[in-house]
Specification:
Layout lengths: L11 E3 L2 E3 L5 H10 L5 E2 L8 H10 L6 H12 L1 H8 L6 E6 L7 H10 L4 E7 L2 H14 L4 E2 L2 E2 L2 H14 L5 E6 L9 H14 L5 E7 L4 H7 L6 H17 L8 E8 L4 E8 L3 E5 L4 E5 L4 E8 L3 H10 L3 E7 L5 E7 L1
Parallel strand pairs: 3-14, 4-5, 4-8, 5-6, 5-7, 8-9
Antiparallel strand pairs: 1-2, 9-16, 10-11, 11-14, 12-13, 15-16
Helix pairs in contact: 2-10
């Protein structure tokens, strides 16, 4: 799965139609193609407009959503051990966080590292300009002396730019890439292999990747996390239709759609869908297209895969990395895993 910038500088014109220049071109293409597929699909990477980011911040505090609490516990209790992994030779490092969001969990590490007077730079990367701006403001307020190098970009473009900057300064800090929050679970098996292969090609020997993996566990625990009692995950998914209405002048009737989630313990996949509650036709005026829906027809919006330790070890082996660190919460619900290039 690729991640795209959320702004571009020119208008998209098709025949006599023009899509505003402040609309993500990847969203335009996703809607144009995804809603013509069978089954229909829209990528979860488009959840994160300003409202989507706000809703997800609420989800992370939901009592049913264990993932954030589990990873927070790991980072809090293992921060010293992680620092030893990151600086075995006291070499300066650049902490590059892919999909930084509001940095809730990462701030545990930032606070500890600065208190230990560690020589490091924090380079948060995010597709959401709103989320990135808020994070930078907060980090500068809490740690005004921390070296910051934020990037509003996709993952791999940001890594290449950061690597180029280091080379131009004749510096060679270790890269420590953070990919937290079980974002890797949004990739298919093949996409995950490609992702780590691409990471491997952009890193140097001795560079590290710290990834958050949600582990397989009792299916009821996982099912509840994506069907929270507060309805936040439903609102998160429905906001994608609201975004399309706003940015592409569509007329999705949100009351005519519902959210449905399923978890398959045989393959470890949780899947989210939006379901049409009636036969209907939706107009997307900015693209001059109409989309028919049958009663019960779905739009697939997200996959969230859950892993075993054996699968994670195989992923490292298949992509050239060595697995050098394994940290879990007290319930073994979640693992933060260190891969070394």
């Amino acid at each position: 799965m690729a991640v795209y910038r959320n702004t571009f500088s020119e208008s998209i014109t098709s025949d006599s139609l023009t899509v505003s220049s402040d609309v993500d071109p990847a969203l335009v293409e996703e809607v144009r193609t995804g809603l013509q597929k069978t089954p229909k699909s829209l990528s979860s990477r488009f959840f994160y407009d300003a409202e989507g980011s706000r809703i997800f911040a609420e989800i992370m505090h939901s009592p049913d959503y264990y993932l954030t609490r589990s990873e927070y516990e790991i980072l809090d209790t293992q921060k010293a051990a992680l620092l030893r992994q990151f600086t075995p030779d006291n070499r300066p490092f650049e902490l590059v966080e892919l999909g930084a969001g509001d940095g809730l969990k990462t701030k545990i590490l930032l606070g500890f590292f600065t208190s230990q007077k560690v020589d490091f730079t924090y380079a948060p990367v995010d597709i959401s300009a709103d989320a990135l701006e808020g994070l930078v403001i907060d980090v500068r307020r809490q740690w005004p002396d921390l070296q910051l190098n934020p990037r509003h970009d996709d993952y791999f473009s940001a890594l290449e730019l950061l690597s180029g900057e280091s080379n131009s300064r004749n510096e060679n800090p270790r890269k420590v890439v953070l990919f937290l929050g079980s974002n890797i679970g949004n990739f298919t098996s093949d996409e995950a292999i490609i992702f780590y292969q691409q990471l491997y090609s952009r890193l140097q020997p001795g560079d590290l990747v710290l990834t958050g993996f949600d582990l397989q566990k009792h299916p009821a625990v996982i099912h509840a996390a994506y069907n929270d009692r507060q309805g936040l995950t439903r609102a998160f998914n429905m906001n994608l239709l609201r975004r399309i209405n706003r940015e592409l002048d569509a007329n999705f009737d949100l009351s005519a759609f519902d959210h449905y989630e399923t978890y398959n313990p045989e393959n470890g996949e949780a899947r989210s869908y939006l379901v049409s509650q009636k036969a209907q036709v939706v107009a997307i005026n900015a693209l001059d297209m109409t989309v028919p829906f049958q009663y019960g027809e779905i739009i697939h919006t997200e996959i969230s895969r859950k892993f075993t330790r054996n699968q994670i070890e195989q992923l490292a082996q298949q992509t050239g990395f060595s697995m050098t660190g394994w940290f879990t919460d007290c319930k073994s619900y979640f693992a933060d895993v260190v891969f070394e290039r």
